[in-house]
């Protein structure tokens, strides 16, 4: 079964750090571009970051320098290290697989909630 | 990087058709044929229903169709059914990033 499972969310104080994980199964992970997308309370989706098969990374401006995305092909996993967290980072974080030839997120995880609050 | 623009709500009666628009710029929707649409039911993850402007993944009913004109993409849902009530999000590749719309809540009357 094709699946992405996120973990690591929780309640964290402003300025704190959190590491999200995403475990993949059912497809060839090592040849897949992986992304993180967040959804703020309400419904807006926001693309956060991406990592290519060679480990190259891309970030939205608001998280660049604070968030670091990485991958571990041996464990079929991607990670999002989030530092200097702010209230506006509060959201459900989804990981997704991009089918590069059509530039679309075709597989989504179930999401993990991150709440930044004192 | 501004979000794509969608109407916040749309509605239709069972059996009718409804179209949802998604407006971007020449740097995203207008510059690439990489528009996607996602259906999201409450408490669930988004599900891909249209990619490459007008293509449907396996298993998605042909009642869902997509199109594009200039910087605006459209999702049309024909023969509305109760289970189509959900949020619909558009998305577009934008060079080195991806953009999403604000989402449209589709209500079946």
Radius of gyration of chain B: 13 Å
Classify the oligomer. Answer: heterodimer
| Beta-strand residue fraction of chain A | over 45%
The N- and C-terminal alpha carbons of chain A lie at a distance of: 39 Å
Biggest beta-sheet profile of chain A: 7 strands, mixed
Strand tally of chain A:
11
Share of residues in helices of chain A: under 10%
Please give a structural write-up.
The complex is a heterodimer of chains A (118) and B (109). Chain A has strands at residues 3-7, 10-12, 18-25, 33-39, 45-51, 57-59, 67-72, 77-82, 91-99, 104-108, 112-116. Chain A has 118 residues and is mainly β. Chain A has no helices and 11 strands. In chain A, strands 2, 4, 5, 6, 9, 10 and 11 form a 7-stranded mixed sheet that branches. Chain A has a 4-stranded antiparallel sheet with strand order 1-3-8-7, with no helix packed on it. Chain B is mainly beta and 109 residues long. Chain B has strands at 9-12, 18-23, 35-40, 47-50, 64-69, 72-77, 86-93, 98-100, 104-108. In chain B, strands 1, 3, 4, 7, 8 and 9 form a 6-stranded mixed sheet that branches. A 3-stranded antiparallel sheet of chain B has the order 2-6-5, with no helix packed on it. The model of chain B has no long low-confidence stretch (mean pLDDT 96). Chain A binds chain B through residues 35, 37, 43-47, 50, 58, 60-61, 94, 99, 102-106, 108-111, and chain B through 1, 3, 32, 34, 36, 38, 40, 44-48, 51-52, 55, 57, 87, 89, 91, 93, 96-103, 105.
Secondary structure layout plus pairing:
The complex is a heterodimer of chains A (118) and B (109).
Chain A: E1 3-7, E2 10-12, E3 18-25, E4 33-39, E5 45-51, E6 57-59, E7 67-72, E8 77-82, E9 91-99, E10 104-108, E11 112-116
Parallel strand pairs in A: 2-11
Antiparallel strand pairs in A: 1-3, 3-8, 4-5, 4-9, 5-6, 7-8, 9-10, 9-11
Chain B: E1 9-12, E2 18-23, E3 35-40, E4 47-50, E5 64-69, E6 72-77, E7 86-93, E8 98-100, E9 104-108
């Amino acid at each position: 079964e094709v699946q992405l499972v996120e973990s690591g969310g929780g309640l964290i104080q402003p300025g704190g750090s959190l590491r999200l994980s995403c475990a993949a199964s059912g497809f060839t992970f090592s040849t897949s571009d992986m992304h993180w997308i967040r959804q703020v309370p309400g419904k807006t989706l926001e693309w956060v970051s991406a990592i290519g098969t060679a480990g190259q990374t891309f970030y939205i401006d608001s998280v660049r320098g604070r968030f670091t995305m990485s991958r571990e092909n041996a464990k079929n996993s991607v990670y999002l290290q989030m530092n200097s967290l702010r209230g506006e980072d509060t959201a459900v974080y989804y990981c997704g697989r991009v089918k590069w030839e059509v530039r679309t997120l075709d597989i989504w995880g179930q999401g993990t909630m991150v709440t930044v609050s004192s | 990087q501004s979000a794509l623009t969608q109407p916040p709500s749309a509605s239709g009666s069972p059996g009718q058709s409804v179209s949802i628009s998604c407006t971007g710029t020449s740097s995203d929707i207008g510059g690439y044929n990489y528009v996607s649409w996602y259906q999201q039911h409450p408490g669930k993850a988004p599900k891909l229903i249209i990619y490459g402007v007008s293509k449907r993944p396996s298993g998605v009913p042909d009642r869902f169709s997509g199109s594009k004109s200039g910087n605006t993409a459209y999702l049309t849902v024909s023969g509305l059914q109760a289970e189509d009530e959900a949020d619909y999000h558009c998305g577009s590749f934008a060079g080195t990033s991806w953009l999403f719309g604000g989402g449209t809540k589709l209500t079946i009357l």
